[in-house]
Specification:
The protein is an all-beta fold and 477 residues long. The protein has two domains: 310 residues, Glycosyl hydrolase domain, family 43 (Tachylectin-2, Chain A), CATH 2.115.10.20; 132 residues, Jelly Rolls (Sandwich), CATH 2.60.120.260. It contains one helix and 36 strands. The strands form nine sheets. Strands 25, 27, 30, 32, 33 and 35 form a six-stranded mixed β-sheet that branches. Strands 26, 28, 29, 31, 34 and 36 form a six-stranded antiparallel β-sheet that branches. It has a four-stranded antiparallel β-sheet with strand order 1-2-3-4, with no helix packed on it. The model has no long low-confidence stretch (mean pLDDT 95).
Length: 477
Amino acid sequence: MKAHIRGANPYMPLWEHVPDGEPRVFEHEGEKRVYVYGSHDSLKTEYCGREYVVWSAPVNDLTSWKCHGVSYVTHYDSVLYAPDVVKKGDTYYLYAAERKGSLIVVASSKTPWGPFENPVETKLGFDPGILVDDDGRVYAYWGGCAAPCYIAELEDDMATIKADTLVSNPLGHSPSLWEPKEYEHVSLADGFFEASSPRKVMGKYVYIFSKRYETPVPELGVFTPNNGFLSYKVSDTPFGPFRDGGDISFNGGEILRDSEGLGTMTYRWGNNHGSIMEINGHWYVFYHRQTGLNEFSRQAMLEPVDVAMGADGRLWIGDIKYLGGEPISSRPVEMTSQGAHINGLDARKWISAGYACHISGGSKRAYIEAVYEKDDDVSAPVTGITNGTIVGFRYLQFGSNSPETVSVKLTLAAKGELRVRIDSYRGHVVAALPLDSKDVCTTACLDCGLIGKHAVYFEFIADEPGVELTFDSFTFD
């Protein structure tokens, strides 16, 4: 029986929903693993849940993820928002966001997966991010939505703000309906929104955050206010001043650019939260995307990311453009289906439609259905597909020997045709699968050879108006 792709994008099983993921590499009992700490979209009808879980992978294989189970359960009969975890000495500290982020407590454990116990209340606020510096000093960063960001140093108890260290609004808050009037004079047209994540990179202090764009970004298809970005600013000190950096990640899917440079998003953007981490000599950005019809079933994503220092001391993070070996510009890294499968997903395994990074066209918005059945081979189907809908995957690996056929599983079929295109949503049609209303699995021969790495797109052409299709999974053979 054919195997199913695992550890793609999203990299956790398709039934798991962990947004706001803060990645950390910890060595415990001689083993180095990357651990992801985030909130847990388990309530299904609102953000997050009442418990945290921990997932980890070996640093040499980011496609093999293990769940360590529940690490912390609310102590205040409340919903838990985005946390962070750091290690100091031989102890791991979890900053739990109780009461939907309005009360931050710090709990501790001797293992990176918990359980985290003995919570102590702090004066920190929404979306806490913690930095343990090289000299052992500890800094906390927080804020968001209705409040600006803050920075403060913590005492050795990891909970108390050190006297006279609190800095208010070092980045400039984005204007919004929730903005307190007293911060209007320090707001920015495109500024800090939430999701504080401090990191130290090449000796620089990097403040990663969710930026809210109020002004258009036409090349990325952004024409209305949008906070689907992870962005960064850089300083030589933990407290600033911070210089503009750029955008690292955007969860609007594949961006289609026209001849004039205007973009079109192909995935429903939503709030974003995450960070960067160097793992086994390579840098990655961890972020999240949306599934379903709301923002209550978000999933953890990752992409390789470039990090470089210019000759002028400027730090670049993202998809970097170089001239003569020197970084000169950067933009958000592309959103892919492959994640840590950097050579592409094995085209000869079953690939869930839930790994799509491009959904466009059609008479209504198709979307990835959220699934919760705890089966690692469960597929998250794309539903609501109508005439002209295109579902795309970047990227697949076909190897050096071309497959001969493509097979597609459908959980609900309609009469028509499913065209398989490569390299572009308007690319060459390599197969056409005729569909009948009774079909649940259909196969067609390829009309040309496919080797190496390619993007693959499925376009639905309906025989009759008003029909819909649900796309479950596919494979080549």
